[in-house]
Amino acid sequence: GAGVSQSPSNKVTEKGKDVELRCDPISGHTALYWYRQRLGQGLEFLIYFQGNSAPDKSGLPSDRFSAERTGESVSTLTIQRTQQEDSAVYLCASRPGQAGDTIYFGEGSWLTVV
Amino acid sequence: GNSVTQMEGPVTLSEEAFLTINCTYTATGYPSLFWYVQYPGEGLQLLLKATKADDKGSNKGFEATYRKETTSFHLEKGSVQVSDSAVYFCALGRQGAQKLVFGQGTRLTINP
Protein backbone atom coordinates (compact mmCIF):
# COMPACT_ATOMS: atom_id res chain seq x y z
CA GLY A 1 0.00 0.00 0.00
CA ALA A 2 0.91 3.63 -0.08
CA GLY A 3 1.23 4.17 3.66
CA VAL A 4 2.72 2.55 6.74
CA SER A 5 0.73 -0.56 7.52
CA GLN A 6 0.44 -2.06 11.00
CA SER A 7 -1.13 -5.27 12.24
CA PRO A 8 -3.05 -6.24 14.18
CA SER A 9 -5.05 -3.06 14.53
CA ASN A 10 -6.43 -4.30 17.84
CA LYS A 11 -5.15 -6.98 20.19
CA VAL A 12 -6.49 -8.12 23.55
CA THR A 13 -4.20 -10.46 25.42
CA GLU A 14 -3.99 -12.00 28.85
CA LYS A 15 -1.38 -10.85 31.32
CA GLY A 16 1.75 -12.95 30.99
CA LYS A 17 1.30 -13.81 27.32
CA ASP A 18 3.71 -12.74 24.57
CA VAL A 19 2.53 -10.52 21.71
CA GLU A 20 3.99 -9.60 18.33
CA LEU A 21 3.13 -6.42 16.49
CA ARG A 22 4.02 -5.99 12.84
CA CYS A 23 4.91 -2.95 10.78
CA ASP A 24 5.24 -2.66 7.00
CA PRO A 25 6.95 0.66 6.23
CA ILE A 26 6.55 2.64 3.06
CA SER A 27 8.58 1.01 0.30
CA GLY A 28 12.04 2.53 -0.01
CA HIS A 29 12.03 4.14 3.42
CA THR A 30 15.29 3.38 5.15
CA ALA A 31 14.37 4.57 8.65
CA LEU A 32 11.76 2.91 10.86
CA TYR A 33 10.56 3.91 14.33
CA TRP A 34 8.39 2.42 17.05
CA TYR A 35 6.61 4.71 19.48
CA ARG A 36 4.18 3.95 22.30
CA GLN A 37 1.21 6.10 23.27
CA ARG A 38 -0.50 5.34 26.56
CA LEU A 39 -4.02 6.64 27.10
CA GLY A 40 -3.99 10.39 27.62
CA GLN A 41 -0.24 10.65 27.28
CA GLY A 42 2.23 11.69 24.63
CA LEU A 43 4.29 9.53 22.35
CA GLU A 44 7.21 7.67 23.89
CA PHE A 45 10.09 6.70 21.62
CA LEU A 46 10.90 3.00 21.78
CA ILE A 47 13.37 2.04 19.05
CA TYR A 48 14.79 3.28 15.74
CA PHE A 49 16.22 1.37 12.77
CA GLN A 50 18.29 2.97 10.00
CA GLY A 51 19.44 0.74 7.19
CA ASN A 52 22.07 -1.73 8.31
CA SER A 53 23.22 0.34 11.28
CA ALA A 54 22.81 -0.89 14.83
CA PRO A 55 19.34 0.09 16.04
CA ASP A 56 18.84 2.79 18.67
CA LYS A 57 17.15 0.84 21.47
CA SER A 58 17.41 3.59 24.06
CA GLY A 59 13.65 3.90 24.50
CA LEU A 60 12.78 0.28 25.20
CA PRO A 61 11.29 0.28 28.71
CA SER A 62 12.46 -3.17 29.80
CA ASP A 63 14.09 -6.35 28.54
CA ARG A 64 10.61 -7.73 27.89
CA PHE A 65 10.52 -5.49 24.81
CA SER A 66 12.46 -6.28 21.66
CA ALA A 67 12.21 -5.45 17.97
CA GLU A 68 13.67 -6.74 14.76
CA ARG A 69 13.77 -5.47 11.24
CA THR A 70 14.56 -7.46 8.12
CA GLY A 71 16.73 -5.29 5.88
CA GLU A 72 14.75 -2.20 4.99
CA SER A 73 11.37 -3.85 5.16
CA VAL A 74 9.10 -5.37 7.78
CA SER A 75 9.65 -4.84 11.50
CA THR A 76 8.25 -6.82 14.42
CA LEU A 77 7.91 -5.49 17.96
CA THR A 78 7.70 -8.28 20.54
CA ILE A 79 6.51 -7.86 24.11
CA GLN A 80 7.13 -10.85 26.34
CA ARG A 81 5.20 -11.68 29.50
CA THR A 82 2.84 -8.74 28.98
CA GLN A 83 1.77 -6.62 31.92
CA GLN A 84 -1.26 -4.37 32.27
CA GLU A 85 0.92 -1.28 32.04
CA ASP A 86 1.87 -2.37 28.52
CA SER A 87 -1.65 -1.47 27.38
CA ALA A 88 -1.20 1.31 24.83
CA VAL A 89 -1.24 2.17 21.16
CA TYR A 90 2.00 1.10 19.49
CA LEU A 91 2.80 3.34 16.55
CA CYS A 92 5.20 2.56 13.74
CA ALA A 93 6.63 5.24 11.48
CA SER A 94 9.02 5.36 8.57
CA ARG A 95 11.15 8.05 6.91
CA PRO A 96 12.71 8.18 3.44
CA GLY A 97 16.33 8.94 4.20
CA GLN A 98 18.14 11.75 5.93
CA ALA A 99 17.27 13.19 9.31
CA GLY A 100 14.87 16.08 8.77
CA ASP A 101 12.73 14.26 6.18
CA THR A 102 9.09 13.91 7.10
CA ILE A 103 8.17 10.92 9.25
CA TYR A 104 5.07 8.98 8.18
CA PHE A 105 3.04 7.15 10.81
CA GLY A 106 0.84 4.09 10.64
CA GLU A 107 -2.54 3.95 12.34
CA GLY A 108 -1.19 2.02 15.27
CA SER A 109 -1.82 -1.27 17.01
CA TRP A 110 -4.08 -0.99 20.05
CA LEU A 111 -2.90 -3.42 22.72
CA THR A 112 -5.03 -4.20 25.76
CA VAL A 113 -3.63 -6.49 28.45
CA VAL A 114 -6.28 -7.94 30.74
CA GLY B 1 17.42 16.63 27.75
CA ASN B 2 15.04 17.66 25.03
CA SER B 3 11.39 18.04 25.92
CA VAL B 4 8.15 19.51 24.63
CA THR B 5 5.31 20.89 26.72
CA GLN B 6 1.88 21.43 25.22
CA MET B 7 -1.22 23.17 26.37
CA GLU B 8 -3.39 20.74 28.25
CA GLY B 9 -6.63 19.68 26.70
CA PRO B 10 -9.24 18.95 25.86
CA VAL B 11 -10.05 22.17 24.04
CA THR B 12 -13.60 22.76 22.86
CA LEU B 13 -14.48 25.64 20.55
CA SER B 14 -17.34 26.72 18.36
CA GLU B 15 -16.99 26.77 14.59
CA GLU B 16 -15.26 29.89 13.25
CA ALA B 17 -13.56 30.61 16.58
CA PHE B 18 -9.87 31.54 16.79
CA LEU B 19 -7.59 28.74 17.90
CA THR B 20 -4.31 28.79 19.78
CA ILE B 21 -2.60 25.66 21.09
CA ASN B 22 0.51 26.53 23.05
CA CYS B 23 3.77 24.62 22.69
CA THR B 24 7.08 25.33 24.37
CA TYR B 25 10.26 23.35 24.16
CA THR B 26 13.56 22.74 25.88
CA ALA B 27 16.54 21.87 23.73
CA THR B 28 20.15 22.75 23.15
CA GLY B 29 21.14 24.14 19.80
CA TYR B 30 18.69 24.70 16.99
CA PRO B 31 16.03 22.02 16.70
CA SER B 32 13.43 21.67 13.99
CA LEU B 33 9.85 22.00 15.23
CA PHE B 34 6.76 20.20 14.01
CA TRP B 35 3.03 19.97 14.50
CA TYR B 36 1.44 16.59 13.82
CA VAL B 37 -2.31 15.94 13.71
CA GLN B 38 -4.23 12.75 14.37
CA TYR B 39 -7.75 12.73 12.98
CA PRO B 40 -10.23 10.20 14.42
CA GLY B 41 -9.43 6.71 13.19
CA GLU B 42 -6.30 7.78 11.32
CA GLY B 43 -2.56 7.80 11.88
CA LEU B 44 -0.50 10.83 12.77
CA GLN B 45 0.31 13.06 9.85
CA LEU B 46 2.56 16.06 9.54
CA LEU B 47 0.63 19.34 9.63
CA LEU B 48 3.47 21.84 9.39
CA LYS B 49 7.08 22.38 10.34
CA ALA B 50 9.76 25.03 10.78
CA THR B 51 13.46 24.39 10.70
CA LYS B 52 15.00 27.63 11.98
CA ALA B 53 14.23 30.62 14.16
CA ASP B 54 11.55 33.03 12.87
CA ASP B 55 10.40 30.55 10.23
CA LYS B 56 6.64 30.23 9.89
CA GLY B 57 5.13 26.88 8.99
CA SER B 58 1.66 26.88 7.48
CA ASN B 59 -0.84 24.39 6.10
CA LYS B 60 -4.64 24.09 5.86
CA GLY B 61 -5.08 27.53 7.43
CA PHE B 62 -2.92 26.62 10.43
CA GLU B 63 0.25 28.58 11.23
CA ALA B 64 3.06 28.33 13.76
CA THR B 65 6.10 30.57 14.12
CA TYR B 66 9.42 29.30 15.50
CA ARG B 67 10.24 31.72 18.35
CA LYS B 68 13.70 31.06 19.72
CA GLU B 69 13.55 33.90 22.26
CA THR B 70 10.51 32.37 23.94
CA THR B 71 11.29 28.74 22.94
CA SER B 72 7.77 28.43 21.58
CA PHE B 73 5.95 27.11 18.53
CA HIS B 74 2.29 27.92 19.17
CA LEU B 75 -0.28 26.62 16.68
CA GLU B 76 -2.91 29.10 15.47
CA LYS B 77 -5.86 29.14 13.12
CA GLY B 78 -8.10 32.12 12.52
CA SER B 79 -11.38 30.30 11.95
CA VAL B 80 -11.72 26.65 12.89
CA GLN B 81 -14.06 24.14 11.29
CA VAL B 82 -15.73 21.00 12.60
CA SER B 83 -13.35 19.00 10.42
CA ASP B 84 -10.40 20.33 12.46
CA SER B 85 -11.48 18.18 15.40
CA ALA B 86 -8.46 15.98 16.13
CA VAL B 87 -5.53 15.49 18.47
CA TYR B 88 -2.60 17.83 17.82
CA PHE B 89 0.99 16.98 18.77
CA CYS B 90 3.91 19.37 18.95
CA ALA B 91 7.30 17.75 18.32
CA LEU B 92 10.97 18.59 18.28
CA GLY B 93 13.75 17.09 16.22
CA ARG B 94 17.41 17.86 16.80
CA GLN B 95 19.53 18.48 13.73
CA GLY B 96 21.48 15.31 13.08
CA ALA B 97 19.46 13.35 15.62
CA GLN B 98 17.14 10.69 14.37
CA LYS B 99 14.08 10.70 16.57
CA LEU B 100 11.34 13.19 17.31
CA VAL B 101 10.39 14.14 20.87
CA PHE B 102 6.65 14.67 21.19
CA GLY B 103 4.43 16.62 23.52
CA GLN B 104 1.52 14.93 25.22
CA GLY B 105 -1.02 15.96 22.62
CA THR B 106 -4.02 18.30 22.77
CA ARG B 107 -7.47 17.04 21.87
CA LEU B 108 -9.47 19.65 19.98
CA THR B 109 -13.22 19.44 19.48
CA ILE B 110 -15.05 21.93 17.28
CA ASN B 111 -18.82 22.18 17.71
CA PRO B 112 -21.05 23.39 14.88
Layout: helices, strands, pairs:
The complex is a heterodimer of chains A (114) and B (112).
Chain A: E1 5-7, E2 10-13, E3 19-24, E4 31-37, E5 43-50, E6 65-69, E7 75-79, E8 88-95, E9 104-105, E10 109-113
Parallel strand pairs in A: 2-10
Antiparallel strand pairs in A: 1-3, 3-7, 4-5, 4-8, 6-7, 8-9, 8-10
Chain B: E1 3-6, E2 11-14, E3 19-21, E4 23-26, E5 32-38, E6 45-50, E7 56-59, E8 62-65, E9 75-77, E10 86-93, E11 100-102, E12 106-111
Parallel strand pairs in B: 2-12
Antiparallel strand pairs in B: 1-4, 3-9, 5-6, 5-10, 7-8, 8-9, 10-11, 10-12
Concise summary:
The complex is a heterodimer of chains A (114) and B (112). Chain A is mainly β.
How would you portray this structure in words?
The complex is a heterodimer of chains A (114) and B (112). Chain A is mostly beta strands. Chain A contains no helices and ten strands. Chain A has strands at 5-7, 10-13, 19-24, 31-37, 43-50, 65-69, 75-79, 88-95, 104-105, 109-113. In chain A, the strands form two sheets. In chain A, strands 2, 4, 5, 8, 9 and 10 form a six-stranded mixed β-sheet that branches. In chain A, strands 1-3-7-6 form a four-stranded antiparallel β-sheet, with no helix packed on it. Chain A is globular and about 40 Å long. The mean pLDDT of chain A is 91. Chain B has 112 residues and is mainly β. In chain B, 0% of the residues lie in helices and 50% in strands. Chain B is built from no helices and twelve strands. In chain B, strands 2, 5, 6, 10, 11 and 12 form a six-stranded mixed β-sheet that branches. Chain B has a four-stranded antiparallel β-sheet with strand order 3-9-8-7, with no helix packed on it. Chain B is globular. The model of chain B has no long low-confidence stretch (mean pLDDT 91). The interface between A and B is medium-sized, with 25 and 25 residues.
